[in-house]
Design goal:
300 residues; binds SN-glycerol-3-phosphate; nine-stranded mixed β-sheet; binds calcium ion; 31% helix; single chain; alpha/beta
């Protein structure tokens, strides 16, 4: 899924000390009227250049000047929320070496303390040795310090009954459910319609996204609980974008479309021209340089 870190730009950014993001002042929102350029959302952080879903990938996106970051949230055996994509720890950590007898190394079968021992950087490149699987709490604190905004994916919600309430609890305790964050800095999405619906029912003010490409006939039912419909780029058509945009979501605003995963400049230009509102990308620097960085209208 990722490209190896090979660009000079990334190397230069790795040495930077000052972030490029505006301080704490609320920036433009994510649920606005149509904007001239789509938002650029760093998929699993700047994951073409740093190990996915680590604080290194978040911080690198910040140094690139990328506000919006996408991640994946799951739950440990003892109830901690952690940021990781696969339901197994095998691909993105050294769990096989540390816990050789625990195959297939499912996230849900390990405690937070056990996961905290794992190296989540070396699999990608030796220079990232020592990166950890972040807890959601650690992740939110890093994003807040960077002034970033979060597209949070509830990954595999069928594996984690009640995870929506757990996520909302941590978001609340970390200050991410105050009016500024809710209006401008947070979207919660999932492939699980029931999970998105649960978030909407428990916190109707939170902006939500449904991942996938529903039939156009099913879009109105999605619009009851989702503000965004976020499809795989390989399924994206102008007709689909237009059909989504014709509907209003639960907050009385036109539904939006953020598509994934878009990495090349040509593909970024293509989906921009199809009218998407957001582009989820492993190479946010490339996409930003392609589509521009126009400000969007505030969400409120
Ligand atoms: O944000 C959408 C995208 O991340 C969904 O696919 O497999 O990368 O989580 P995946
Ligand atoms: Ca994801």
């Amino acid at each position: 899924m990722h490209a190896r870190p090979s660009v000079a730009t990334a190397a230069a950014l790795l040495g930077a000390t000052a972030l490029l993001l505006p301080g704490t002042a609320p920036a433009a929102g994510y649920a606005p009227a149509r904007q001239s350029s789509p938002l650029v959302i760093a998929h699993r952080g700047a994951s073409a250049y740093a190990p996915e879903n680590t604080l290194a990938a978040v911080n690198l996106a910040a140094r690139m000047g990328i506000e919006w970051v996408e991640n994946d949230v799951q739950r440990t055996r003892d109830g901690e929320l952690v940021v990781i994509h696969d339901d197994s720890l095998r691909r993105t950590t050294d769990v096989e070496r540390v816990f050789p007898d625990r195959a297939p190394w499912h996230v849900k079968d390990f405690t937070a303390a056990e996961i905290a021992r794992l190296d989540a950087g070396s699999w990608y490149d030796a220079r990232w040795a020592g990166e950890r699987v972040p807890t959601l709490k650690q992740y939110l604190e890093a994003m807040e310090a960077n002034g970033q905004k979060l597209l949070l994916e509830i990954k595999g919600p069928e594996l984690y009954p009640g995870i929506e309430r757990d996520i909302l609890r941590v978001l609340g305790s970390e200050g991410w459910l105050d009016p500024v964050h809710v209006e401008r800095k947070l979207v919660v999405q999932s492939f699980g319609a029931d999970s998105v619906r649960a978030v909407h029912e428990q916190r109707p003010d939170v902006t939500t996204g449904f991942l996938g490409t529903p039939a156009v006939a099913d879009l109105p039912s999605c619009a009851a609980f989702a503000d965004q419909i976020n499809p795989d780029v390989t399924t994206l058509t102008a007709d689909f974008v237009a059909a989504v945009h014709r509907l209003e979501g639960p907050h009385g605003k036109p539904l939006q479309v953020s598509t994934w995963t878009v990495d090349g400049a040509a593909e970024a230009a293509r989906v921009r021209d199809l009218g998407v509102d957001g582009i989820i990308t492993n190479t946010p620097d490339v996409v930003r340089d392609t589509v521009g960085a126009d400000e969007v209208s505030p969400a409120t």
